[in-house]
Amino acid sequence: MLVMILAVGIGITAVPGVSATPYWVATWGASPQPVWGPDFMFPTHIPDKLHDQTVRQVARVSLGGPRLRILLSNAYGSQPIIVGATTVAIPNKDGAVVADSLRTVTYGGHHTAVILPGASLISDPVALPIPALAQVAVSFYLPNATPMNTFHWDGRQTGWVVPGDQTASTILKMTDDSAQSTTARPLLAGIQVEVEQSAPAVVVIGDSITDGAAASLDQDSRWPDFLAARLVPHGVAVVNAGISGARLLSDGMGDSALARLDRDVLTQPGAQSIIVALGINDIAWPGTAFVSDSTRPTLDELIAGYRQLVEQVHARGLRIIGTTLTPFEGALPGTPLDNYYHPDKNVLRQQLNDWIRHSNTFDAVIDFDAVLRDPEHPSRIAPQFDSGDRLHPSDAGNRAMAESVDLNILLDQIILKEF
User: Molecular function terms in GO for this entry (predicted)?
Assistant: First the structure.
């Protein structure tokens, strides 16, 4: 009876399926990047500006829950962004959604909100039960002229930009030339779900190999996706903080790992174990069309960067697992980046891998080099795991990477933290 009186006194209303003390865990992510100009070698796949248009994106969560909330980012914007109507729903084919799953999203109780320059915006909780490893469609309307300065370039998932406010439409209307599909992710940076008790998350910070550059489109076949399928039965979420072109020490197609560590990794709700899979772009970019006049970092400089990552992660009481760098001889043949590989670069990769394996700097090590290399030619990726560009693993390679992870190096730490 006392509990009932107290509950009434502070205005608490019980909601079926929702815990009295909500716990939120990050269950999906797309690390923000600055949109580059037309002089860069890769197209952005989004318009320079959106105005009176709806963006609909699909994302597969790892852990599910009875409620979710979304995170939008204006990290690289120079002016406020007005976000209009927003919905979430269960996706159907070709941009359609299941009608009775449509839910309105609010921000502080309002249907519109402002994302300040350099800031992010988190929504109110939305009662939409989502199973583990299920997809969610997020739609938001941009009523004003909105320069596109913040996005995630390589989403490996088809999304849509359509005219007008179609956030509540079950089937998108492609009514004019401004309608388009895109594999980039404007503004959407994260999804969190409510869980009954505190749940841990594994956050993977990496480059294009983690981002899934050669993974099959719309198939959720990046290696962190396969790892999520293995961890979900243990109640563990996985967040992919990979950025294609990412580097450990320098900015590239996104901020350096050291610059984005807090935002993309350490502040993720529930983060307990961090996997770092970075370094190949630091070694291979210099001298290519990306940064033709840049100097390759030394082994000591790379080690110093890794040590700083480890120190910052350990300062938060979290666990950090290092991965070796995968083979890349002959990478990107027939492209403007066909000098991405050089024997001297491979020597540095091998030296760095030796340090990762044997320095005892990390709490544990995952040897992706040993998983993917060709036993007959160890500086190359094995043919059965090669996507065809001799750098990025295929779906089969991604699966092999995920299956090689000893879950005990993740789960043991989680048990220790909980008890």
Answer: hydrolase activity, acting on ester bonds
